[in-house]
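Two proteins were folded this term; both appear here.
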Amino acid sequence: MMHFYPLYIDPGTGSMLFSILVGAAATLYFLIRALVLKLKVVLSRGKVSSDTNYTWKYVIYCESKQYWNVFKSVVEAFERNKTELRYLCSSEDDPVFETSWEYVKPEFIGEGNKAYAYLNFICAEFVLMTTPGLQVYQLKRSKSVKHYSHVLHASTDAATYRLFGLDYFDSVLLTGDYQAADIRFLEKLRGLPEKQLVTVGCSYLDTYSEKLKQIIPEKEHLFTVLVSPSWGASSLLSLYGEKLLDPLSASGWRIIIRPHPQSKKIEAGMLERLQTHYKISANIEWDYERENIFSLVKADIMISDFSGIIFDYMFLCNKPVLYINQDFDPRPYDADDLDHELWQFTTIKQAGIELYEENFPRIAEIIKNTVDNTTISAARKKARETAWQYPEEAGKRIYNFMINTEKED
């Protein structure tokens, strides 16, 4: 009797097969396009311009609605300047659809491989995205795109992407000048041509800064500790759980726990256990809102691990941070090829206070001392000036770069 077993393709092989199929489809697609263009030239006796090869001058691709805050001010700059923009997104409920635009044309193009297949065939002068890994996995450079640009969506190091994350872009838009050094180091190490590096500021921090101004302060403020970790086996909730939260709960202060969005998908069991354990603790709140800004503004101090939210909080709210377990395995990331420690790790040692497990029982005392620490206050100010340049100007600067680059090409 013959037995049939289901076919299994591992993710790496699946990615490779998809890339082969996309490459073959792209070759056929562009061959047909070239033939059609030549036919048009013949029929019009040479009057067809090669510019007809580009459907759009400017395109933004937003891979998830969470990145709307990165692009919001850029989109508004296009609308304000009456310049057409194609906004492609992979979230059907992207906030871009909540506004009626005259010059901005939003379009949902699907998720995952469906979106990549669409993007691999687009025709444009300039494409801007937060998605790394261009020309590394499924996302390929379209032959009908002149310029690909990556905008950093965090004020931390540019080398914290997965390997080769920025290598094949034509330009990278930085939040601070300091990020350029690591990119140049990797280009030289890997024999890559130098890409354009332009410091534009941090667009999503600009957007959050505006939102902060509109939030009405609490009438009766309670001293609040925000626990906002990353996710995974090395994150503070996974490693310490009740060991950290029990003494925090005993302090009597308001404790807001905001798990990383990925924790709900990967660590649902752990979160359910903790929520059940603290169900009767009146001073503990759980925050699963899409935006973190409301918890940030309530908090007097943050406790985190290696999450980038540390710098969002320090820069936007200018308040202290306690951090736990800054262990970071650089091997899957560009950082592994660097010959020095990342800026964010040297900076947090100056602008934050490290919290050790053996000190959890006296955490209330440590928090009181940290709030009044003037030394780390000065370090926070210096870090902000380094990593978030040109506050409130990012949208305008990104728009100007896109326009000027298209004109120069």
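Next, the second protein.
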Amino acid sequence: MKILLIRLRLIGDVVFTTPIPRALKRAFPGARISYLVEEAAAPVVAHNPWIDEVIIAPRRRGVRRIADDMALAARLRRARYDLVVDLHGGPRSSWLTRASGAARRIGYQVKGRSWMYTTAVARPRELRPRHSVVNQWDLLEAIPDWAEGQADPLRDAVEMPVPGEADAAMDRRLAAAGTTSHHELVLAHVSAGNPFRRWPEPAFARVLASLAAFDPRRRVVVSSGPSDRDAAGRIVSAARAILGENAGRVVDIGEFDLAELRALIARSRLFIGGDTGPLHIAATTRTPIVGLYGPTLAARSQPWRDPAVPSFAMEVADLPCRPCEQRVCVPGDFRCLTTIRPEQVIAAAEEALRWRA
């Protein structure tokens, strides 16, 4: 049996799909599983032991996009898949699912696109407090002869295996920054893809300074996306200014790729960050997490892993505008994020740091 999984776009969304190949191999032991993903998120699945082949979907624009998609569709047709599962539901992924020519094509029931599937699974449009992994599991339950039961984070946690070279590269980076095995690492990811998920810089600086000041063994490492390097620099500078003579406890080790980020998180005693790709990569480890959820619901995107590992969700309840579609902030002040107080995050972080695996 040849199965193709399609999940384009965002890193965190691809992380949420990683329990699925394992479940499919368990249900269909002889299956060959391919995974179609865009290049930015490919490291999430590149070394997954349950995936036999990773196919990269180019992400160019205009006429080149059309040429890329026609070539990709021809490749998928030649592969003769028995089953294609569209885990995304967007225009491009649904078209590629249809173009594969597979006898069985499963996807979400989306207006104008359901006809591209042989089985369309209902997906309510409202933002429900239901985990994204469970939502995607609905697609698996539409497979004939599926008998794997419900999604279970203990049995099928999210995962992202890391190649040895990424571990070695992170060892070198940390050593160059003066950190040793004696130090206790705290990683804070301070950027986000849009302003709806970006906690204020002064709040981050205050939290990082407090955590670094508490214990001389701690080293707080700051990470960000390439477009937010200036913001990360400002946060580092502000935290160091608060710390004074202990400024060296806040460490900036430069930019690194996703595999190196995963290696760094696994070494850390704590991860702090917004509801973005790095937080979901952190969920593939046994590192405690303090997540900052603004317009999104923790119930939808909290870590999908062993619940014994601490995961704290910082979110503001009872806001009539929350959750939202993240297109416009109706109140105009991003209050779902700005009213998360540094003291709350510090308290959760210190509690998480007391945990020992």
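The domain at 2-140 is CATH 3.40.50.2000 (Rossmann fold). The longest strand covers residues 32-38. These notes refer to the second protein only.
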